[in-house]
Design brief:
By secondary structure, the chain is mainly β. 5% of the residues lie in helices and 42% in strands. It is built from one helix and 32 strands. Strands 1-2-3-4 form a four-stranded antiparallel beta sheet, with no helix packed on it. Strands 5-6-7-8 form a four-stranded antiparallel beta sheet, with no helix packed on it. Strands 9-10-11-12 form a four-stranded antiparallel beta sheet, with no helix packed on it. A hairpin with a 4-residue loop joins strand 30 (349-353) and strand 31 (358-363). The chain starts with 5 loop residues before the first helix and ends in a 9-residue tail after the last strand.
């Protein structure tokens, strides 16, 4: 029997395309860039910048507070793509250089760092397990790692069949994450009966790579896992890894961005440049946005305002406010470069991080774009174009 070489070739082709998109097709895969989403925590904004720094800003004014590594430090890190998290009074983030960092926000110093043998692209997860607080993160070395939050020591690891770019999520002690091997994995994060942390519960295989992160929501009081794939499909699975729709929803190109859910509708952008509204119960299309952006959408959207409309960022350099009832564009704002970072929202406000080295906080109340502040990451100032 001849070996099946189609899937390895396809996987390699997808990986090359994704790497080109992630770091640029320049031949230099040691990019110090990145496109981190923002974390809003109390009165601060935590975000990874294009200069490969974790930067902390005042949420109300955009004023620079501090960054890591600090000027003059010998430590150099590569791009930060995953959104940082704050847990138990510490900051955690991964870097393209393959290290997971724990920082003390008071001293602005490293508590510990955990090295992997690959790159970290996704965001870490805080898992409050029965065995203590853990930080869980995936790496392109194909491993999902569970790290003890206090000591920074390895608790357990799980090896997938492909690189891990998606951010893990947790439900009832089970960790869910996708891989470029096309599988959505469910891995035990707790000891249950004979299952130990790091044991595989199940894996569901799609026909394309998965860079998206899973969303866990509820349908008729039953939990449902939503995951997009590079096979152009959006899947809905139950917690046992079984399809809940008759057929997955199909777009005309990849699902890279993580979707959002409002009431009984899923809002999922695609790299075809469109936004899809999908019925949560049966997977049928409610609408497709009547406009298409002029670039792929890899930025995960946000929900904003009293009407709970949808904000998307596109590789065409624009940010769009979309009416969630019909998919029509309410307003758009053009930056000077691609928008690939996940959009972060809080009530009427959104934080946009573009490839133009500018981080903006805007108020979208009543559909207007009112820029509250802008921070320039190149010169660490509030002087923007």
């Amino acid at each position: 029997m001849k070996p099946n070489i189609i899937k390895p070739i396809y996987t390699l082709g997808v990986l090359v395309l994704v790497l080109c998109f992630l770091v640029g097709c320049t031949g230099d895969f040691r990019s110090t860039s990145g496109w981190s989403g923002a974390l809003l925590d109390d009165d601060k904004v935590y975000i990874g910048t294009k200069e490969a720094n974790l930067t902390v800003l005042d949420k109300d004014t955009g004023r620079y507070l501090w960054s890591f590594p600090r000027d003059g430090d010998d430590l150099k890190i590569e791009g930060i793509y995953g959104t940082p998290i704050v847990a138990e009074d510490s900051i955690f983030f991964g870097s393209y250089s393959g290290e997971l960092f724990a920082l003390d926000p008071n001293s602005e110093r490293v508590i510990w760092k955990f090295p992997t043998d690959g790159h970290i692209v996704g965001s870490p997860l805080h898992h409050n397990s029965s065995n203590g607080h853990k930080i869980i993160v995936g790496s392109t070395d194909k491993h999902l790692y569970s790290i003890d939050m206090k000591s920074g020591r390895l608790d357990w690891s799980f090896e997938a069949d492909g690189e891990i770019w998606s951010s893990p999520v947790e439900k009832d002690g089970i960790i869910y994450f996708g891989s470029l091997d096309g599988k959505l994995y469910a891995v035990h994060g707790e000891t249950v009966d004979t299952n130990q942390p790091g044991d595989l519960k199940w894996a569901y295989e799609t026909s394309g790579a998965i860079a998206s992160s899973a969303v866990i929501t509820s349908v008729d009081n039953e939990d449902v896992i939503l995951i997009g794939s590079f096979d152009r499909m959006l899947y809905a699975l139950d917690l046992n890894g079984q399809l809940t729709w008759n057929t997955p929803f199909e777009a005309t190109n990849w699902f890279w961005a993580t979707p959002v859910v409002v009431e009984d509708t899923i809002y999922a952008p695609s790299t075809d440049g469109g936004l899809y509204a999908i019925n949560l119960f049966d997977g049928n299309k409610v609408w497709q946005s009547p406009f298409m952006t002029e670039g792929p959408i890899v930025s995960s959207p946000a929900i904003v305002g009293k009407n709970r409309d949808i904000v998307i960022g596109s590789d065409d350099g624009s940010v769009y406010l979309v009416d969630r009832q019909n998919g029509r564009e309410i307003r758009s704002f053009n930056t000077d470069d691609h928008v690939r970072a996940n959009i972060t929202s809080e009530v009427n406000k959104v934080i946009i991080s573009g490839n133009d080295h500018q981080i903006r906080l805007a108020d979208l109340e009543d559909g207007f774009w009112i820029e509250t502040w802008c921070y320039n990451t190149k010169d660490k100032s509030n002087n923007c174009k």
